[in-house]
Fold:
Amino acid sequence: MRRFKIPEVTVGRLSLYLRCLNELEEEGIEVVSSLDLGRRCGVNPAQIRKDLAYFGEFGTRGVGYYVKELKEDIKRVMGLNKIWEVALVGVGNLGTALLRYRGFQQHGFKLSVAFDIQTEGKEIPEGCQLYHASEMERVIKERGIKLAIISVHYSQAQEVAERLARAGVKGILNFAPVRIRLPRGVVVRNVDMGTELEILTFYLTMKGTR
Amino acid sequence: MRRFKIPEVTVGRLSLYLRCLNELEEEGIEVVSSLDLGRRCGVNPAQIRKDLAYFGEFGTRGVGYYVKELKEDIKRVMGLNKIWEVALVGVGNLGTALLRYRGFQQHGFKLSVAFDIQTEGKEIPEGCQLYHASEMERVIKERGIKLAIISVHYSQAQEVAERLARAGVKGILNFAPVRIRLPRGVVVRNVDMGTELEILTFYLTMKGTR
DNA sequence: CCCTCCATGTGGTAACTTTCACAAAAGGTA
DNA sequence: TACCTTTTGTGAAAGTTACCACATGGAGGG
Structure:
């Protein structure tokens, strides 16, 4: 049970295992081996065991993993055994869609506050409150929010990120097409849909050229 | 100029360099060294040179890279010197937002057709046509579309992907939270926003625990 | 035309990830 | 209890990716 330097890919796979385990649970399967789990989610079984070994011994030799238990263990390890409040900054097209997206709620995230420089005429779902961007620091500090999503124009993303960090946010998911850089202590993940499409065209073009 | 087995991370970085080069061009900077470019986008300069070396020699020793030239070279390598038509399947919350998202157009992608099982009462932007899902194969074949975005419910994502592949699509960007698996010949990229948030909570939780 | 300067392109190596392969342990059976 | 089957947990090997360090070769000046 060593806790140092967990590779990011491992963490991503934990999330994947979690999804598979949920499926297995729904199907009424109670025990699963790394081989079967691996087949399901397209990961080498040894890889699964190594990933899990970073955090402890969750299996039973000769048997496998108890689905329900492993699920809870992974949730605990990833900090998903509680509900996380998330702030969303930038209620444009994408921001609005993200507010309505049900996938977050299902995974224990609650988009409870949103910010924009324009607060008129926006449709905000139940349970979420819209504030003017100038109130960002105050509201985030008051509610002790640690997670934020940035969906503003790329020219403002870096500045918004810095303000969020100063307000006490510790994790940022950035949808603007700039690589945000912040001092250590804040984790940033950049989701760039343009890049994703470009990677696809690259491989499509390659195939033709070769 | 070897063309075999380009790592995916390299391709992603090419896209990043492209963005930086656009910025540099806007600022009127004509020549850039790998050192400066590296500082801008947070990549080691040797890394940049290695990445580019997969595709040829684009720089001039003692000088650096000519911004405009390198930009065009990267665009050519990635197949971005043309406009790509993209089909979108699933016009729900997320799908609608993606249709309206301007970032794609700016990078040479045109969301020209969309499909859903429900075609009534959807607001579709100019230049994009909405069809019933049953017409998917026909329309995609007729227009020779090679790229598609999936934003349907996760329970249908795999099936939609298979239909797209049969209709001739070669690259799929999947926003549904399932890892889509297809036979070789079709490139799939999964964008999973739930996983992204979970990776953040993992690192936030870790920091506290350690 | 030669010499100096400077940033590229690249061989080698270090760091990291994935996979293999097997000893260790748990559970069932006689 | 002893033995057999099964699957974990893990050390070591293989495979990738990132980085260092320097020879190479343009460009510009004298």
Chain A has a mean pLDDT of 93.
